[in-house]
Amino acid sequence: MDTFALSTSKQKFPLLFPTATDRSSDYYSQCIPGVAASSSSAPPTAVASTSKTSTSKPSTPTTLSTATTTASGSVPTGSGNGPGTTLQTGYYWIRAVASPNFHKYLQTKPIYLPGTAILESYLTAGQFAIVDGQLVELLTPGTFLYANVIASTVSGATKLAVEFRKEKNTYGTFAWSGDALQWTVAGLTRPNASAWLVCENQTLWINLGSYGYMTPAGCADQTIHYYNDKTANA
């Protein structure tokens, strides 16, 4: 699916892999009409607020005077505090839309700290943006984690682990295709760049095989999609 710009009409777009468990037969729209995800060259700066009334993303992210980075340019260690349960400007929820992980949301374990990428409850959903091919999680203004894909050293590997770290990812590139999250890397051909796996303990993996074919034991095939309502929901 090519990247699209949503119109203001309530047009819906086809899923990459529609299933009988999808909530609207052959079509399922993840995004609020009038808003389309985009990539940028710098992480949007945001602060938790209970007064947010609009889910529309402005053309330029809001810059806060409190947003800072260290002199070396590295991202500070996560504090365990997140941005709150209201979606911040320039960020998106990311969730699965099919069984057995319908409306399970991307987040870290431990929550808001460097650790394993998982799909879990909407109550602890993370907020994400794609910046120069990096999948960035917002913690606080100026404090971020980056999704790191772990290259396999095993011949014939069927999946790759994903962890969130203070350091930027050096293996591959994240991008949106429609509302679906994709990952690609030079020199590695995947049957479908939007194919993911959710395995034991809700851990998220990149699927190196075909979607729905020879799924590794203990895992479920999933695609994951951005969602831009002001709050995550079940």
Task: Supply database-style keywords.
234 residues; mainly beta; Trefoil (Acidic Fibroblast Growth Factor, subunit A); ten-stranded mixed β-sheet; two-stranded antiparallel ribbon; 14 strands; 0% helix; 28% strand; globular; disordered N terminus
Describe the largest sheet: 10 strands, mixed
- What share of the residues lie within helices? under 10%
The number of distinct helices, counting runs of at least 4 residues, comes to: 0
CATH topology of one domain, which one? Trefoil (Acidic Fibroblast Growth Factor, subunit A)
Gross morphology: globular
Please give the number of β-strands.
Answer: 14
Low-confidence segments: 1-29, 47-79
Distance between the termini: 26 Å
Q: What does this protein look like?
A:
Strand 3 (105-109) and strand 4 (115-120) form a beta hairpin. The protein is built from no helices and 14 strands. Strands 1, 3, 4, 5, 6, 7, 8, 11, 12 and 13 form a 10-stranded mixed β-sheet that branches. A two-stranded antiparallel ribbon has the order 2-14. Strands 9-10 form a two-stranded antiparallel ribbon. The radius of gyration is 17 Å and the shape is globular. Residues 1-29 and 47-79 have low confidence and may be disordered. The chain has a domain at 78-227: Trefoil (Acidic Fibroblast Growth Factor, subunit A) (Trefoil), CATH 2.80.10. The chain has 234 residues and is mainly β.
